[in-house]
Amino acid sequence: MDTKKITMPKLGESVTEGTINSWLVKVGDTVNKYDPIAEVMTDKVNAEVPSSYSGVIKEIVREEGDTVAVGELICYIETENEQESEQAEQKNQPSTGNLKERPIETSDETSMRSRYSPAVVKLAGEHNIDLQSISGTGLGGRITRKDIQAYINSGKMDKAPIKEKETEDQTAIYSAGGKDNEIPVTGIRKIIAENMTRSKQEIPHAWMQVEVDVTDLVSYRNKIKTEFKQREGYSLTYFSFFVYAVARALKEFPEVNSTWAGDKIIQRHDINISIAVAKENELFVPVIKGADEKSIKGIAKDIYQLAEKARSNNLAPSDMEAGTFTVNNTGTFGSVSSMGIINHPQAAILQVESIVKRPVIINNMFAARDIVNLSLSLDHRVLDGLICGRFLARIKSLLENMNEKNITI
Amino acid sequence: MAEISYIQAITAAMNEELEKDENVFIVGEDVGGKGGVFRATDGLYQKYGEERVIDAPLAESAIVGVSIGAAMYGMRPIAEIQFADFILPAVNQIVSEAAKIRYRSNNDWNCPITIRAPYGGGISGALYHSQSIEAMFNNQPGLKIVMPSSPYDAKGLLKAAIRDNDPVLFFEHKRAYRLLKEEVPEEDYIVPIGKASVKREGTDVTVITYGLCVHLAKQAAETLAKEGIDVHILDLRTVYPLDQEAIIEAASKTGKVLLVTEDNKEGSVIGEVAAIIAEHCLFELDAPIRRLAGPDVPAMPYAHSLEKAFLIDEDKIEKAVRELALF
C-alpha cells in the first residue's frame, strides 16, 4: 500500500487554474486508473479530472467550489500495487528533482565516466587537471563543464593526488631488524613524503642565496614589540616583515608567482603565501591569502591565527588551499643556510634563515650588524638566475630600507 | 506607457510611420475598409485614405511587384501578404527582383520594401494558414528576415524595417497577435535589424530561438528555475542574416545548446545556427547541439491533437532542456 497525490492537471494551453465543480468520488471509493474523479471548470473548458492511479480515495483535500492552481494537490489516493504505483510515479514525474541534489542519486552510474566533451578536455588541458581525480555529476557519471569549473574554482587542483606506484615496491627492501623501531607511515607523514618526492623528482631545482642587513629592522622591531604584544595580544614576529617584503616583490615579479603546466607557464594573479608550520612530526602549510593586499600587522595576525589553528588541529582544507609561493621560516631552528624543496606546483620557495650578529665592513670599518640569509629554491623550468637574482635583490632592498622612519605596521 | 498586444504594436508602428513619412503606404488583401483579416491595419484606411491604404486584388505577385516598382521610385511600401503561406506566387518578385536590384544595378537602384506576413500554427488553421516559411528565403543575400517575439520588439523592428533601404520580410506569429501583451512606449524608437537579444541570463543550458518560441522558452525557463536549472535564452529576432557574434557568445556561455523552431526540422533556420556553433564553438561545447523542431511532414495537421503534436510547446522545451541539463 502506498499513498499517492493527485494534483490539478493542465487542462489546456494558457490555463493556469481550475475550479472544482463537483467531486465524482468520495473518501473510501475504489477507482481505476483514468476513471473520472472530479469535474473541473476553467475559463476555457469544463473537464473531468482522471485518476492517475488505481486505488482507494483516502482524503479529499480541496472542496467543491475551490479554485485550484495547476499542479496543486487535490486529493490523496491509496494505491493497491506498489509496483504499478512506482511506474506511475516515474511517468508522472519525469523530473529528476533538484539539479543540485542529483549527483547523489546517480553516483554509482559510470557508463559515461570517461567520455569527455571538447569543453571538458580543453579546460582540463588548460589547467593541467587529471580528469580521473574529478567525479562527474552528468548523465552516467559524465564530467560536465560545470564540474570542471567548480573544481577549478575550489582550488583543489594545486594539490592533485599523487600516484603511489613506486613507493609500494620499496617496502620489501627495507625490513626492520630485531632492535629497530618500525613506525608505520600514515596520515600527514605519508602525504609529506609523497609531496616531497613528487616535487623533487619532477622539478629541476636550482638554488640561490643572498645576505641581507636587517640591523635597522631589528632595532625598530625590538623597540615596539612589547607594546605591540600588549596592545594586540599576539607577537609582531620578524617573519611578518619578511612575508610582507616577499609579497611586495612578487607583485613586481609575477614570473616567480607561477606554475609549470607542461606546455605553458601559468602566472598567478593572486599572491597567496604558503607558510610552513611544524608540529612535532607533522608539517602543515597554511596559506596567507592576498598577502600583497595586507599590512605587516595584517600578515602578523594571519600568521598567528594560522599557527594557532595548526597547533589545535583546527586547520580547514580551505586554509591550506591556493598557495602560490612559499616562505619558510627555517631561522626558527637556528639554521643559517638551507636548500628547500619547492612546494609543488609552485615555482619557488624562500627560506628565511636566522638573524645573526656579524662583523661586516662598512666605510672601511668593522661594524656589528644583524645579518640574515635568504635562500631561494627555484623551478629552473620556469625561472632563470637573472629574474631570481633581481627578485632577491628587490627583497633585500625592501628589507634593508625598513627602519623606524619609513615602516608603517 | 500602455500595455498593448503584439498586433496593436504592429498597427502602432505602421500608423506612426504613415504619419511621419508620406512615402509610406500599405497594400494588401482586405487591408483597407476591413482593416485586415487579423485587424492589423485597423483604422488606417479611415485615417489615411484609399491612396495610402490600398485594397489589392487577390494576386500576391502583383502586391509585391507593384510595391517593388513603387519602392524603386522612392516610395516605402508595406506589402501585406494575408497569410505567409500565400507568399509563394510572389517568390519570383521577392527573390529575383527585390533581393537583387541593388546588386544588379551596381548600387544605382534600391528597393525599400517591407513585406509583412502572419505565419505559424496553433489556431486550427491547417495547411495554407499555419506554415512557417522563413527557411525558403534564408539563403538569399539581399533579403533581411525579421521575426519578432514580443510587442516591444515587433513595434521597434517594424519601424526599422519600414525605414530600411532594402527589402525586409517581416513575419509575425499569428498566435502571438493576441496572446502576448506588454508595455510599449508611445514615443518613437526602433529596434535594430540584425541584432539578436538575450531575453534571459542563465548558466546551465542555452536556448536559441525566435518568434513565438521565445515566449514558450521563457515560460519553460520559469518552471525549470524551480528545479535549479538555469536557462539562458537568446532571441535571434533577425533570422537572416544571422547575428553570428551573439550566437557564438550565447552558445559558449553554457556549452549546452538547444535550438528551437516551429518550422519543419530539416533545412530550417536553426540548422544554420547549429552550423555556426559547430564552426566556432567546438571547444566550448559540453553536449551535442540539440534541435527541437516540427516534424518533417508536409503541412500542419488540422486535427487538434495532431496540431498539438506538431507544434512546439513549453512542455517540449522543458523536457529537452532538462535532458541537456542532466547530460
Question: Could you explain how this protein is built, in words?
Answer:
The complex is a heterodimer of chains A (409) and B (327). With 409 residues, chain A is of the alpha+beta class. Chain A is built from ten helices and 18 strands. Chain A has helices at 82-92, 102-106, 118-126, 145-154, 165-170, 187-202, 215-232, 238-252, 296-311, 385-400; strands at 2-7, 17-23, 30-31, 36-41, 46-50, 55-60, 67-69, 73-79, 205-213, 258-260, 265-267, 273-275, 277-279, 282-284, 287-288, 325-328, 348-362, 365-379. In chain A, the strands form five sheets. Chain A has a six-stranded mixed beta sheet. In chain A, β13 (277-279) and β14 (282-284) form a beta hairpin. Mean pLDDT of chain A is 83; it is low at 84-97, 100-107 and 160-169. Chain B is of the alpha/beta class and 327 residues long. In chain B, α1 (6-20) runs parallel beside α6. In chain B, β13, α10 and β14 form a beta-alpha-beta unit. In chain B, strands 3-2-4-5-7-6-12 form a seven-stranded mixed beta sheet, with helices on both faces. Chain B has helices at residues 6-20, 44-48, 60-72, 91-98, 101-104, 151-163, 176-179, 212-226, 244-254, 269-280, 304-310, 314-326, and strands spanning 2-5, 24-28, 53-55, 76-80, 114-119, 144-146, 168-173, 181-184, 197-200, 205-209, 231-235, 238-240, 257-264, 290-294. The interface between A and B is medium-sized, with 22 and 22 residues.
